[in-house]
Amino acid sequence: MLANQLLTTINQTIEKMCLPVENTVIVKRNESYIRVLLLSSINGSYLFPNLEINQTLAKLVEYGLLYDGFLDYYHKNSELINSAFEPYSDFSKKYSIEDLSKAYSDMLSMEMHASSNSTNYDRQKDRRDAAGAYYTPNSLSESVVKHTIRDIEKSCKSKIDFQNANIIDPSCGCGEFLISVKKELCSHCGISEEEAANRLYGVDTDPVAIQITVIRIFSNIQLPNQEHISNHFHIGNALYPSSNSPDADLAQLYVDGRIYSPDYGVLNAIMNKKYEIVIGNPPWEKIRFEDRKFFRQYSSPIADITKKDGRSIAIESIKKTQPQLYSLYLEYKKDFEVFKKYALNKGIFTKSTCGELNTYSLFTELSLRICSTSGIVALILKSAIMTSPVNSRLFNWLRKEKNLSEVFFFDNSKKIFDIDSREQFCIAFFYPRVQNTLNVSFGNTSIGQLSGFHSVELSERDIKLINPETCLLPGLNSNAELSFLKRIYSNNSTFAQEFPDCHFGRLVHLTLHANSIFNEPSESTIPILEGKMIGQYTSNYSTFSTVDADKKYLHKSKSNLSSVTEDLTSQCRYHIDISAWKQISKNYNEPYSLVWRDLTSSSNSRTMIATIVRHMPSLQSVQLLQCKNIRDLLLILGIFNSKAFDYILRSKLSGIDLTQKIIIQMPVPKKEKFETSIDFKGKIDSIWNHIIRRVAFLLPTIDFGIDLSSLQPNSAQLIEDIDWLVASTYGITNDEYDAIVQSF
Fold first, then answer.
1. Which residues share a beta bridge with 494?
2. What is the pLDDT of residues 93-118, one digit of tens each?
3. What is the pTM for the complete model shown?
4. Which one of 234, 247, 326, 514 has the minimum C-beta count within 10 Å?
5. Is the separation of the CB atoms in 658 and 490 below 8 Å?
């Protein structure tokens, strides 16, 4: 495998340098320098054949495709590097640039780690995640490009002169979209290869990726002059203005992964013109500093410390023992703080900064700001930009002011991208339509010709009906679900309207309350419930009592399924000081709380997993609500755990957090419908009473003072009864109910 061959050469070169393996900063920096120089020397042989390594690298610097700091490093280590790289002198004759592009993508998932007296590579994604370097499959980029250049023309108000169009990918990676654009301009628009190549612009934080992009675009045609290349292709962060600092060591910033440094920006270089097409697949990452991820890159045991106060002590201790790592930690952390302040206050991003900063939101706003008013923006984005409550302001700006015209929703169940199969993404097209409508296609799983995908037209009224609070798009599994959902919303109320007095919360936080949380129980503490302990109608679903002590507190530690009912003190792994808990919960005065798992997914077997507990501490992985009327609380639990509610909920859930904002918009039957008396299994009573008696039976550890004597002790049947009672109250037909049950 080519990637392994290249990594072996890099590793052998590092070993010959006899670096102090215990100094992981020195090892990682040198590895990054050698990696970039090896790949740059290979890339240079495609662009500038028959040159010596030093001449090739100098040419790349001259063309703006490599920072001069890499050339300085080469000169300091030229003898070793020339010897190590010699076997690759005829690489460009043996392998195509497409082979190298594929190998480089594979290399991005491997990071060097030092252990004992040696270095080695293992699969790690912390650095890759920070840069969002997950490249687009060729078949998907071609599909998006063909739709942009061929299909949109039929419904776009203004026609684009492709012969003279400026086309940019502001996060181009190895150039997949730009290559597809070049092919389409040649095959569909009749433009020559040279003319098509000269219309393209690209930006990326990775110098190697930019080099590969340029090679792929200009293969088989004359490479333009240095000025053209340096004006069209830029290494740096497109979200950040250029600093123009003469003292900035950009090579050092790159090898340290500091792509959010104020000195690493190139925004000014692309803001000086408008583009007729902005296209690409920007990173989907959260812009936040996470100390555990940072230290994991450097094989530091600090990454394994789960509690923040413990990490803080350990971090302080390396100030003297590992000063370089400590210094880099401070710089890396400051970069994120400075970028956040810039994004929130500089006025460039005014719509995409709600909640936690995300690269896909910022890149969307950037793309729309650099696109001409008659142009087209085509982006692959996380579905959350269209469906998550935190993005409601951004989405409504996109829809009402920025010509959002088409959205194709996908789930990753068939691994279109080599990431989590539960991930959901969309392809969004922005352009001025002849008719001001929004066409949406739901539930796609495979790549194809987008014009052949079935879509539905969503009106302003439809959107407001389904999501009255946020006016976002639903996340549906198919287009057919839309008519069902519209009827359910039209014929029912919402949770906020029917249960306005509910008090929501998420109370104990491992970081915020670290000083009051302990691993071992005592007379002055009480146990803390975690989300993974909650099952439907039980808080005893799983336990940490049977987890080995050395694994119990690891990052993403797994609990074991409970086989018996346990005392919470042994079941839980965290305990909080009673006096601290009283202060935290002082505004929650009801004896019982309805709790559910905050972390979930619409692709899970069940999305809502809830129970009722005596009011107790619960971690941030648990959402809760309280209400004064116990009948309301029991009814809500029956609704929450029903298949009908779960089925509808999937359309609301864009990410993995099942929050209050989602719950309050959920359609639920009007309370008065639950007061209807029916004969159910030989007993005449209100639907409300039929439901809450069964719910109370399923919670045997709590006495709600309800007569349960006539119920058969069959939990599975009681749950089926609740499912049917709730569905019928929603107005769901028998055929629809059968289809809903079959979907679980």
1. 667
2. 899 999 999 999 888 888 877 666 67
3. 0.84
4. 247
5. no
